[in-house]
Amino acid sequence: VKSEGPKLVPFFKATCVYFVLWLPTSSPSWFSALIKCLPIFCLWVFLLAHGINFLVSHRSASRILAGLIFSALGDAFLIWQEQGYFIHGLLMFAITHILYSSAFGMKPLDLKAGLLMGVVSSSCYAFLYSYLSGPFTYLVAVYIALIGFMGWRAVAGVQLCTDLWTWTKLSACVGAMLFMVSDLTIALNKFCFPVPYSRFIIMATYYAAQMLIALSAVETRDEEDFRKRS
User: Fold this and answer.
1) Which residues cross the membrane (predicted)?
2) Which of 83, 114, 173, 182 has the fewest CB atoms in 10 Å of its CB?
């Protein structure tokens, strides 16, 4: 973790810039889109700092980088969500969750975690259903299924009671859970009722989630270094 910390300094600075400027959402602009996306751009740099060869040779890392790219596109679209671009942002983040799920992989399967995540996802949709109308009735259902699946794959990778436990898998798990909290807050605030301090909750959990998921991409590099030292 200590070796990765310095590479994340630009991300922390960019995140501070976002919260310090706190540009109003009522007047979207390319500048506000840049400020919002800047921390995600820094996570691109964080992964690229590990080397192109590393990204090319490790599919999980390259898929997480691709997910971050689609996340930035989603962030930009959501700046103009009141102008009709909310669905575009939803689509970008749906692709992000597919890429993250692919990066986390299907082993171990852990059906218990899958069942638990299925119950949580179904409960969230059941609560939101009565507030939804038109295309959002099925779009939100598909989105919840995708982020729930992503959460399952992240949780399944954590094996605290075995020798296969790694801090990066725990990082992916916590990141996925925070991503779900962020998106659930968006849904509640947009479709159900005003959530106090919603923007702060959404962005704080979102940036933390993306950072932790980006950190999980360095797992294969850590394993290689461990084998070399052994």
Assistant:
1) 30-49, 61-80, 86-106, 113-132, 138-155, 167-188, 200-218
2) 83
Alpha-carbon separation of residue 198 from 23, 27, 131, 204 (angstroms): 15, 18, 18, 10
Q: Quick one: tokens of 165?
A: 């436990």
Q: Which residues contact 219 (CB under 8 A, 6 or more apart)?
A: 60, 166, 168, 169
Lookup: tokens for 11: 């991300």
Q: Sign (positive/negative) of CA torsion 105, 107, 109, 115?
A: negative
Phi and psi torsions of 165, nearest 5°: -70, 135
pTM of the model: 0.93
| Inter-residue contact 104 to 157 (CB < 8 Å) | yes
Question: What are the sequence ranges of the domains in the chain?
Answer: 4-228
Taking only the tens place, the pLDDT of each residue in 108-153 is 999 999 999 999 999 999 999 999 999 999 999 999 999 999 999 9
Distance, in Å, from the CA atom of 61 to the CA atom of 92, rounded to the nearest integer, reads 19
Q: Which of 139, 119, 121, 148 is nearest to 190 (CA)?
A: 139
pLDDT tens, residue by residue, 32-77: 999 999 999 999 999 999 989 989 999 999 999 999 999 999 999 9
Cα(170)–Cα(27) distance, rounded to whole angstroms? 38
Return d(Cα 218, Cα 25) in angstroms, integer: 34
The Cα–Cα gap between 45 and 186 comes to 27
